[in-house]
Amino acid sequence: MTVHTTPTRPPIPPHVPPHLVRDYDLLSWTMPGSPDPYDFFASLHGDARVFYNATSNTLYDAHPKGVWVFTRAEDIRTALQAPDIFSSVGTVPFSSMIGETWPLIPIEQDPPLHSAYRAVLNGIFSPQKMKVLESWVRGCAADLIEKLRPNGGCDFLEEFARQFPVAIFMQLMGLPAADTDQFNTWEIELLHSQDFARQSQATRAIADYLRALIARRKVEPADDLITLCINAKVEGRPVSDDEIIGMCFLLFIAGLDTVTAALGMQFRYLAMNPEAQARLRADPTQVPNAIEELLRRFSTIISSRFVTRDVEWAGAQMKAGDRVLFVTMLANLDPAEFDEPMKVDFERSDIRHVAFLYGPHRCIGSHLARRELIIAIEEWLARVPEFRLAEGPVPQAHAGGVFSLDRLELAWS
Ligand code: HEM
Prior knowledge:
Blueprint (H helix, E strand, L loop, with lengths): L20 E2 L16 H5 L6 E4 L13 E4 L2 H8 L5 E2 L6 H4 L15 H10 L4 H22 L4 E3 H6 L1 H11 L6 H13 L3 H24 L5 H7 L1 E2 L2 E2 L2 H15 L1 H16 L1 H9 L4 H11 L4 E6 L3 E3 L2 E3 L4 E5 H5 L33 H18 L3 E3 L7 E2 L5 E2 L3 E4 L1
Parallel strand pairs: 1-2, 3-11
Antiparallel strand pairs: 2-3, 4-8, 5-15, 6-7, 8-11, 9-10, 12-15, 13-14
Bound molecules: protoporphyrin IX containing FE (HEM).
C-alpha cells in the first residue's frame, strides 16, 4: 500500500493543536505493495482518539479543508447519535454544483424533519416491496452470471458489480431498462471522475431527466417510486418537485456505488481464499452471517458531518463549521470492539458492525443491500466453479466517500 501525502496543505486553524495534525490522503492511497489495504485503517487505532487530517478526503469539496477523524468505535457511535452537534446539513452538496438548492433527502436533513422524510421512504423499502423485488433481483443476478460463465474469467467490477445494482435501481424506480447504460455513464462521471466539471454535468443531466419524469408521472401516474413521492405528504403538505429530485438523486448515488464497492471487496476476499468459497458452497446457510462478517471486515463508507457549535469532544476542541469524518472501517476494525478484528471469521456471533452507519441516518436500504449481496454470492457460487484472482493487473482501489476497487480480474477453469 502506498499512502500518498497531500500535494497542497490548507492552513491549519488556530484551535487545532499541532500534536493532533496528520497528513494522510485517504483519497488516493492505492493497494500495490500491500496485500491488505485495510492494514492502514487498523494501524490508526494506535493513534489518538481523534486527530485532525490536514486535507479533507471527501470527493465533493471544491476547496478541501482539514477534517477531524474519530478513530474509536465508541466515539463514532456516540457522535452519530448527537445530530444536534454533528449535523448532516450541507454535507453532500451536489445541487450547488449546478447552482440549485435541493438537498439530498433524507441524508442532508437533521431530525425532526429527517424523520418525516424517512417515513415517506419507508414505504419504498417496506418488507412487502422488498419481497416482490427479491425474485427479480435473483433473476437479474443469474442472467448476468450466465453471460460471463462460459468466458472463464471477467473484470468482476465492470461486468457484474456495476451492472447488478444499476439494473436493480432501474427496476426499483420504474425506469426503462433501455436507459440503463445512460445511468451507468452518469454514475461513473458523478462518483468516479473526481473532476468537478464532469460531476456538475452529470448532476445537471440527472436532475433534468428526473424533472421531465416527474412532469410525465403527474399526468400518467404509475406504480413506481416517482409516483409514490408525488402522492406523499411531509408534515401534512405535498412534497415539492425539488424534494422529489433530492430523494431520487440520493437513491441513485446511495444504492449503486455502495453495493458495487461491497461486492468488489467481498469477491476479492473469496477469490483469494478458495477454502472460504468451499465452505459456503458446502453450506449456503452460512452465507448471511458470512456477509455480515465481510461487511464488517471490508466496510467501505466514509461519511461526514459539520460541527454546529464549539464543543469539546473526545478530548479535542472543535469549532462550529468544522467537518468530521466518520470512517466505518475504523469502527469496524476497532480491537476494543471485536476480538482479532482483522481475522475473517464466518462464525463470529453478534457482529455489531457500522458498515451501514449508526444513529438516525443508518442506511434505509440496508435490507435491500443485504439481499443483493447474499443473492450475488449464492447465485455466483451455484453457477461458477472455484475462482481466483487472474494473473495480470493488481486490483486497484480508490477511496473517497466510498472506498472501492476500480477493477477486479477473476478467472476460473
Ligand atoms: C452495501 C451497500 C450499502 C452500504 C454499505 C450503505 C451504507 C450507507 C451508509 C453508511 C449510510 C449513512 C450515510 C450518512 O449518514 O452519512 C447510508 C444511508 C442511506 N442509504 Fe445506504 N448503503 C448501501 C446500500 C444502499 C441501497 C441499496 C440503498 C437504496 C437503494 C441505500 C439507500 C440509502 C439511503 C436512502 C440513505 C440515507 C438514509 C438517511 O439519511 O436517513 N443504501 N447507507
